[in-house]
Amino acid sequence: MKSLVRVFLSIFIISFGLMGVAAWLNSSQGYSGGNTLTVYNWGDYIDPELLARFQKETGITVIYQTFDSNEAMLTKIEQGGTSFDVAVPSEYALAKMKQEHLLLPLDHSKLPNLKHVDSHYLNLSFDPNNQYSVPYFWGTVGIVYNPELTKGIDFHSWDGLWDPKLRNNLLLVDGAREIMGMSLNSLHYSLNDTNQAHLQQALTKLEKLAPNVKAVVGDEIKMLLANEEAAAGVVWSGDASEIMDQNDKLDYIVPDEGSNLWFDNIVIPKTATHVDAANKFINFMLQPDVAAQNAEFVGYSTPNKDAKKLLPEDISGDERFYPPSEITDKLEVYDNLGKRMLAHYNELFLQFKMHLK
């Protein structure tokens, strides 16, 4: 019996020691303690200089992790394990996070820089009174194209993508809502449509697009289009801006049938362990000079009215990325379609991608 007790005691001591070593390692790498902030954001979606500046001004160490889709972000937060202090979901994912009680309400008294945000981008349907979120960037979904390689194709309509002259010369961003929505819009349906007959029509029309599709890709779509590996691509507006910076031959358009008006938003997940640091970070990102620097670096449109005033005229005055109301009035925000319908969208999109092989 004594030997058994000694064995258990040894195991306990070793385990306790290993836990201590692990805690020390985590602490030395900035993964624990009250002076850290864990940010969960899209890739290439913040100016790294701003993270360094925030750390220098506050003494708070930023642990920065990235995701490549709202669905991946939602899964990670739902599963727990990592206590993200700040996350950046799109509007429909934000609505789902609210529904599933995954967010902490914001204390606006700790966010005085919220006053710099244009009122047009506050109190929107997916988060009334901005109870859980502040807008980070906004933009559209449209078509980047090379006028020299697409002569005779009219991209004022989504139907231009089906032109036979684009055979094996079109790139699509890898997003179910974006591509299913584009097809629905081309049929003059809402990109939030849940009618099964309409969704099937959208899939059938996408399958007819297959001969023109060179690939469905992720972040590499920017490099491929800039290098003229394809004549056109369906992309988010911020990616379009970056692509056009690299190749000034290219242009961007939102077709007349309408498209998506999207918002990415800063939130504090319910599992956050450094809420005070999260508030300081959000308020920092709302500073006009910070928001302007970030918008210029990332290429997406800022909702910060005072930051927009600090941007160069060739950016703030570009109607392709800050479109007038006659264009934005035709655009739709993604609704939270619910888990079952979202899975159906993903299934239809997968069927389309399988049809390409």
Protein described:
The protein is α/β, with parallel strands linked by helices and 357 residues long. The chain is 42% helix and 14% strand. It has helices at 2-28, 48-58, 70-79, 91-99, 176-186, 196-209, 221-226, 237-246, 275-285, 288-298, 305-308, 313-316, 325-328, 339-355, and strands spanning 36-42, 61-67, 86-87, 134-145, 170-173, 213-217, 232-236, 251-253, 261-266. The strands form 2 sheets. Strands 4, 5, 6, 7, 8 and 9 form a 6-stranded mixed β-sheet that branches. A 3-stranded parallel β-sheet has the order 2-1-3. Mean pLDDT is 90; it is low at 1-33.
Q: How would a textbook summarize the main sheet?
A: 6 strands, mixed
Helix content: 40-55%
- As residue ranges, the low-confidence spans are 1-33
- Could you say which structural class the secondary elements and strand pairing correspond to? alpha/beta
- Total beta strands: 9
Mean pLDDT: 90
Shape: globular
Beta-strand residue percentage:
5-15%
Query: What Rg, in angstroms, do the CA atoms define?
Result: 23 Å
List the total number of helices: 14
> What is the element string, with H for helices and E for strands?
HEHEHEHEEHHEHEHEEHHHHHH
Question: How far apart are the termini?
Answer: 66 Å
InterPro entries: SBP (IPR006059), Sperm_putr-bd (IPR001188)
Main location: periplasm
Subcellular location: Periplasm
Keywords: Membrane, Periplasm, Signal, Transmembrane, Transmembrane helix, Transport
